[in-house]
Design a protein that fits this description.
192 residues, globular, mainly alpha, 8 helices
């Protein structure tokens, strides 16, 4: 929700192209993940997890926006479907590999950090074209939208919770209910 407010501000007010926005949020996620390795308090982990999840969420939404913006109308649905399938395959692979790397120490943090750094290298190579353009327009008021189309807004909120709950909470739910860490990782793969 905050990302949907921040990204247009970065693009419209500061004039940052989509490539720079992606780099900014990828650096944020890399730093949050690296610092998380040393965090020991619940409060620190909560803040770092919010930064990591928020930054990665913005990156994924920017990619979806870019795919939508650069795809022809007849291919847009297929392109987004391919992206979503690849996302789920990556989620499954990551969940299946997580028990091999563990959940503590550098062995747990190095693989995602390495992947994020590879993503940064790919962004360095990518020329940034075609660049999705954000037009300057006043954002609609959330309350006005809620009054005009409350069922659609509710459906979006419910789907957003449904979409993000497995990737953020399912493993914790499994651990809290007595399932061992390895099986908890497999629960997320099964859900995906």
């Amino acid at each position: 929700i905050l990302g949907s407010i921040i990204v247009p501000q970065l693009q419209v007010r500061l004039g940052l192209p989509l490539k720079r926005v992606l780099q900014l949020f990828l650096v944020t996620s890399i730093v949050a993940l690296a610092v998380m390795r040393f965090a020991e308090t619940y409060a620190a982990m909560t803040v770092l997890r919010l930064l990591l999840g928020g930054a990665m969420g913005v990156i994924l939404r920017c990619i979806e926006y870019w795919i939508t913006a650069v795809s022809d109308a007849g291919e847009r649905g297929r392109n987004l479907a391919v992206y979503n399938v690849l996302f789920m395959v990556a989620l499954i692979i990551g969940s299946l590999l997580q028990p091999e790397f563990g959940s503590q120490g550098w062995s747990a943090f190095a693989p995602p950090l390495l992947l994020a750094c590879c993503g940064m290298l790919l962004l360095q190579i990518w020329p940034g074209r075609p660049n999705a353009v954000v037009e300057i327009a006043p954002p609609p008021a959330v309350l006005a939208i809620a009054r005009l189309i409350p069922l659609a807004l509710l459906a979006v909120l419910v789907y957003g919770a449904y979409e993000s709950a497995p990737t953020t909470m399912l493993q914790i739910y499994a651990l809290k209910n007595g399932i061992d860490a390895t099986s908890a990782a497999y629960v997320l793969a099964a859900a995906a």
